[in-house]
Amino acid sequence: MEATLEVRGLCKHYADGDRLVEVLNHVSLDLAGGRSLAVTGPSGSGKSTLLNILAGILAADAGMVVLRTGEATVDLATLNDAERTRLRRRHIGYVYQFFNLVPTLTVWENTVLPARLNKRLDLDARAGELLDQFALSARRDTFPEVLSGGEQQRVAVARALVLQPPLLLADEPTGNLDATNSKHVADLLFSAAREQNVALVIATHSEEIAARADQRLHLNVDTPPLT
Ligand SMILES: Nc1ncnc2c1ncn2[C@@H]1O[C@H](COP(=O)(O)OP(=O)(O)OP(=O)(O)O)[C@@H](O)[C@H]1O
Ligand SMILES: [Mg+2]
Fold this sequence. Notes:
Elements: E1 4-16, E2 19-31, E3 36-40, H1 47-54, E4 62-68, E5 73-75, H2 81-91, E6 92-95, H3 107-117, H4 124-133, H5 149-161, E7 167-171, H6 179-196, E8 199-203, H7 207-212, E9 215-218
Parallel strand pairs: 3-8, 3-9, 6-7, 7-8
Antiparallel strand pairs: 1-2, 1-4, 4-5
Bound molecules: adenosine-5'-triphosphate and magnesium ion.
């Protein structure tokens, strides 16, 4: 199944004490299945904020996010919380910047969680292969807290890939990895986009990874206005 993402005029600000911090200022983008978009920009420029809005985890102040899948066209703002959660569960793979692994579940249980939530017992073999590819098979029964940052990051990537979701959001997915693992993770994400028609949004500080994406969105840090 293929997904298309259409984003128009997204704005988001945070209140920081009595200051108003404008983070996203009319951000628009279009991304088709099979294509990749690199989101770049300095720390604090709003990359994670944007991805959280695309995932329906955070509401924008203004603007529109429309996700078209084979099944339906949905404007995220029209969904209630339960509907947004269901959409995310079924159609979106998200590699969180800080991994968000479930501490009480093992590496294996974390990896197959999206499959379990969708009652897809047929994906165990795929989950096993992903763990193999990420050299994590020996860590299957380990809990996240004893893993290195890079190992946790690879589990987070494997978990996002298990379901083969049509929209993949990856927030600095190689930020904790050595060069070899970084290339491997990037190879898997970009080949998912090309070969499985996934729409891939990847936030990154790596010029090398950004250069591999089909499209690029650069965010700037504005000097926050005083209110
Ligand atoms: N919940 C919040 N409340 C107040 N300010 C916030 C909140 N979340 C983020 N911010 C601010 O919004 C700005 C953008 O944050 P965001 O995490 O989106 O940046 P980023 O581009 O992902 O940065 P990094 O490269 O460091 O991950 C930052 O100035 C941050 O301090
Ligand atoms: Mg971030």
